[in-house]
Design a protein that fits this description.
Its EC number is 2.6.1.42. It catalyses: L-leucine + 2-oxoglutarate = 4-methyl-2-oxopentanoate + L-glutamate; L-isoleucine + 2-oxoglutarate = (S)-3-methyl-2-oxopentanoate + L-glutamate; L-valine + 2-oxoglutarate = 3-methyl-2-oxobutanoate + L-glutamate. It is an enzyme of class 2 (transferase). Keywords: Amino-acid biosynthesis, Aminotransferase, Branched-chain amino acid biosynthesis, Pyridoxal phosphate, Transferase. This is Branched-chain-amino-acid aminotransferase. The protein is an alpha+beta fold. The protein has 2 domains: 116 residues, 2-Layer Sandwich (D-amino Acid Aminotransferase, Chain A, domain 1), CATH 3.30.470.10; 160 residues, D-amino Acid Aminotransferase, Chain A, domain 2. 27% of the residues lie in helices and 28% in strands. The chain is built from 8 helices and 17 strands. Strands 8, 9, 10, 11, 12, 13, 14, 15 and 16 form a 9-stranded mixed beta sheet that branches. Strands 1, 2, 3, 4, 5, 6, 7 and 17 form an 8-stranded antiparallel beta sheet that branches. Strand 8, helix 5 and strand 9 form a beta-alpha-beta unit. The structure holds 4'-deoxy-4'-aminopyridoxal-5'-phosphate (PMP). 4'-deoxy-4'-aminopyridoxal-5'-phosphate binds next to helix 6.
Length: 304
């Protein structure tokens, strides 16, 4: 059975996990009206540190702005809640999940409900399985496309978006693949169910643009910065589906997935079928941030 941590932060107080409840008639439960973040803290030689907490919370407030949700807490209040809930549970390497949602206060689509906020945390290892970071995963191109621009904003990390993610991920797993990759409404490549994509051609990283209905991932941004710093070129561009089959290397990235190589897509081997040199280098640089081997020049590690 699923194990839960002891403590959770809800609406300003840390309470036992089982007491953090919401009413069944909460707006968000019916209409998907929540915004959230997924953040990791790592055990570093200098103690527990939350990776890019400020940037994640900035995106949380941006997501909320798109849906006219005014959080009754400041960015600093939520940052403190993140730190407090990790400390209270005695965690260091953990996942953090701040969520703000339309609560009980009206049943109309445009109801001005109260905005409730919670911050949960739980221990988390590699998201796509323990071997995934090393040997890579298999993936398929989903029969489900991403929502088109001007339908649901992909740039907001909102609860309702994850109906799309569930269709993509569940189909992939039903068919025996590790993860699903979606095309945008344009027919061009978008992203994974919960991860951004990088393809490597001749040592250059290619990633899909905002116009391909992606979430602008913080891991994606991290890899762009680390790669350029290391002399690896990065281009953001439209990518047709068949490029998936022709790339030298492909990786998925996200807070949960970290940097996961893809070894096979739609039954076709990618490159050598193993993590390639660019993927390995990015993993080394990325994970090096957390054991002190990569210097954190950007202040990305925010102490708990
Ligand atoms: N795309 C989607 C749809 C996601 O859910 C995520 C995970 N938040 C990502 C990309 C990766 O974003 P990040 O690196 O900020 O976790």
């Amino acid at each position: 059975a699923q194990q839960y941590p002891e403590w959770i932060w809800q609406n300003g107080v840390i309470k036992p996990w089982k007491d953090a409840t919401a009413h069944v008639m909460s707006h968000a439960l019916h209409y998907g009206s929540s915004v959230f973040e997924g953040i990791r803290s790592y055990a570093t030689p200098e103690g527990a540190a939350i990776f890019r907490l400020t940037d994640h919370l900035k995106r949380l407030y941006q997501s909320a702005k798109i849906y006219d949700m005014v959080l009754p807490y400041t960015h600093d209040d939520i940052a403190t809640a993140c730190r407090d809930v990790i400390r209270k549970n005695g965690f260091s390497a953990a996942y953090l999940r701040p969520v703000a949602y339309r609560g009980l206060g009206g049943f109309g689509l445009s109801a001005e409900t109260p905005i409730d906020v919670a911050v949960a945390t739980w221990p988390m290892g590699p998201y796509l399985g323990p071997e995934a970071l090393d040997v890579g995963i298999t993936a398929c191109v989903s029969s489900w496309q991403r929502f088109a621009p001007n339908t649901i904003p992909a740039g907001a990390k909102a609860g309702g978006n994850y109906l799309s993610g569930q269709l993509i991920a569940r189909e992939a797993r039903r068919l025996g693949f590790g993860e699903g990759i979606a095309l945008a409404a344009s027919g061009l490549l978008s992203e994974g169910a919960g991860e951004n994509l990088f393809l490597v051609f001749d040592g250059v990283l290619h990633t899909t643009p905002a116009s391909a209905s992606i979430l602008a991932g913080i891991t994606r941004d991290t890899l762009k910065v680390l790669a350029r710093e290391d002399g690896i070129d990065v281009v953001e561009r439209d990518i047709p589906r068949e490029y998936l089959y022709l790339a030298d290397e492909i990786l998925m990235c996200g807070t949960a997935a970290e940097i996961t190589p893809i070894r096979e897509i739609d039954g076709k081997q990618i490159g050598s079928g193993k993590a390639g040199p660019v993927t390995r280098r990015l993993q080394q640089l990325f994970f090096g941030l957390f054991d002190g081997k990569t210097q954190d020049k950007w202040g990305w590690l925010e102490p708990v």
